[in-house]
Design goal:
Rossmann fold, alpha/beta
Length: 312
């Protein structure tokens, strides 16, 4: 299919066909990663800057590795050693970067809408690596790819996102992507972790982890994001584990196979039992592997190679 988007800001509004095209492209790059020399010249001559205003391990390393596998030139921007510490604005940072003839920007920022703002400041393609409590589209795509590897068609599959929905950008990208592919989506967590707009998302809402497990084929377990929360949203991690922790005992009570995803980092023994994260139920390491392939696909498709592009 013709792919004419310039920016990847989120999965909201993406069609089933567009998402499948990205995932099919990721599958082709996954084959590249299995080669003795896992590198192709696809983005040779392209310069990509990684503009991370928040701490990140998996996402940043995954993007850097994807860029190297595609033979792109990579520039890493660290806010701790940049002019941001001296008061430079995002607009000025962006314009200075563009003056260096950058082709693409991968940005993670604590403010929702920062990637969208960047599209108004520079001509480069923008890839959102997570913005505030808005979206994390490549995480959503790699979760979809992991489930597609296991189930094939996701039409009618029941996926429950468990945990801190209100503060999660991963949850939003998963909801939009899963619904586009025909899956049924549920949300589970304390009422204080449910955003006010959840009732408009067309999802099932559970306040009992047992009921959520009984309904679901897949649990996508989120960590409690203490760094984005106000105090007083739940009594303690011990209480959260007691009422909403995903444990082997709870899964086995369902008497059927349940698949576990987790975007990481994992708070072992809080939102998920430590042993369960490494068990036969878990596809967590598959998610990590698929992350590089998905980001290779995103960098390639949104680079504008061999086609005319329009803003998305």
């Amino acid at each position: 299919m013709e792919f004419n988007r310039k920016h990847l800001l989120g999965l909201e509004g993406f069609s089933r066909e567009e998402i499948i095209h990205i995932l099919d492209t990721a599958n082709s790059f996954k084959e590249v990663l299995s080669r003795p020399i896992p590198k192709v010249p696809t983005l040779r001559g392209k310069t990509i800057v990684n503009l991370f205003f928040e701490a990140s391990t998996r996402t940043r390393i995954s993007f850097e590795l994807a860029q190297k596998r595609l033979s792109a030139d990579t520039v890493n921007f660290a806010t701790s050693t940049s002019s941001v510490k001296k008061g430079e604005t995002l607009r000025d940072t962006a314009r200075n970067i563009e003056a260096m003839k950058i082709d693409m920007v991968v940005i993670r920022h604590g403010a929702a809408g920062a990637p969208l703002f960047l599209t108004q400041c520079v001509d480069a393609s923008i890839i959102n690596a997570g913005d505030g409590q808005h979206e994390h589209p490549t995480q959503g795509l790699l979760d979809l790819m992991t489930l597609r590897d296991k189930f094939g068609d996701l039409q009618g599959k029941k996926v429950v996102i468990v945990g801190d929905i209100a503060h999660s950008r991963v949850a939003r990208s998963n909801i939009y992507g899963l619904q586009a592919l025909g899956a049924q989506v549920g949300l589970c967590g304390p009422s204080t972790f449910m955003p006010y707009q959840a009732e408009h998302w067309g999802t099932e809402i559970f306040h009992s982890i047992e009921e959520a497990i009984e309904w679901s084929d897949v649990l996508n377990v989120l960590r409690i994001q203490l760094e984005r929360q106000e105090k007083g949203l739940f009594p303690s991690t011990r209480e959260y584990r007691r009422f909403f922790g995903v444990t082997r005992e709870r899964l086995e009570h369902a008497k059927r196979d349940i698949t576990i995803l987790h975007p990481g980092p994992i708070n072992r023994g809080v939102e998920i039992e430590s042993e369960l994260a490494d068990s036969e139920f878990s596809l967590i390491l598959d998610q990590v592997t698929n992350g590089v392939a998905v980001r290779m696909a995103a960098l390639y498709l949104f680079s504008g190679l061999n086609k005319e592009t329009t803003d998305a």
